[in-house]
């Protein structure tokens, strides 16, 4: 059985703009529990107060999977890590790391190999003082001199690590080479069988899934991955792609995972709702076109026998027929049931908010689709604390008019209003909001799309705004795209305001 270690909430959250608040992380952790992953890496406890609280909350709440927290190999990190993880008891995993490649040791850590080895062993021993469930990662393992890598792996196993991770931190390796690295460790580290070798592949060359498969063929027992493959830079190994590759090619890949695959699509959609990061349409397994057959010849083959062009069924990944779902006469019960099928388990308060919005939308729009429901949940439920709220907006524009937006907002409970001219209605609206909020943030990206087809479709706007190094995403939807733009911009301002600072040194 290959263990699936999900790091969506830690490495995934390191995707630009993917930062999540505690409530959002908990929501995703519940879905990861349904997916039945073996380990949830919930965050980096020392990185910020927000990370600490999220790891603690998940450790207190989620039953089933082990809960890991990342810690550098220093005592302060490890002590803080356990403070958050202790609530998961024996399911709490301290994941500690230090870089082992010459490049990282020389330029980043400014430490000798002997010092790094010593820090690794001391870190693991410190962690073992709290729990037997300790994982150690040799950061940048793929660019580490092999003999030294084997020495570190052997030493941390002796010190008590039960899992040793061999990450391709910079997404540099290729399958054949990675296979050989794992095989070398299996053959040359005398105590290697006392621990599970784990792999953690980044996707800079688009090879993260292929590399992970090669690694399990060489004897790795754990794969670290993320939903939708989100993560630092080009992302991490995509959980859904790895799991479905193993399942679909069981004929030549004699491995299994515990993942409940029909929860993959709900997990992917939920992550998109939470982060606003949309999946490319041609993405394997969870892209909108992954099961769409366009060419006539393919459609003909499918009608004769599905196996002509379908190597796995849409149902196996949780894709249910997404035709028209609900209309204005649909009741609360049907609404709740469909939301649950889509991966949105809402409490009563949020369900009421979402249902009200659904009724309002169903009055405007005859047909309400799954995508509309995702947008409603993103808009009504995935809200952060609101320092800024939109009260009213009025816009005038046209071929002969200078666009003017009058915006009224509630800021810290007080109503404020202003008007601005702009180069078009969106520009005028965003300028007015910027003036009222006194924000210094720069607009990095603005995208508008329609959630479904038809001129009465919900318009969905995504904006990215940045301040210093930090970039956040905001989303808003409405059948009026100017209102959607205002909501998205205000959502981003709230996220920026409530984002917790992280400032982490290498060790
Ligand atoms: O990519 C990496 O090396 C990591 C480690 C900290 C596991 O994320
Ligand atoms: Zn990583």
TrEMBL record:
For whether the record's keyword set contains Cytoplasm, the answer is yes
Q: Which UniProt keywords apply?
A: Amino-acid biosynthesis, Branched-chain amino acid biosynthesis, Cytoplasm, Leucine biosynthesis, Manganese, Metal-binding, Transferase
What are its GO biological-process terms? L-leucine biosynthetic process
- Report the pathway entry: Amino-acid biosynthesis; L-leucine biosynthesis; L-leucine from 3-methyl-2-oxobutanoate: step 1/4
SUBUNIT field: Homodimer.
Q: Which NCBIfam families match?
A: leuA_bact, PRK00915.1-2, PRK00915.1-3, PRK00915.1-4
Protein name stated in the entry: 2-isopropylmalate synthase
Organism encoding this protein: Geomonas silvestris
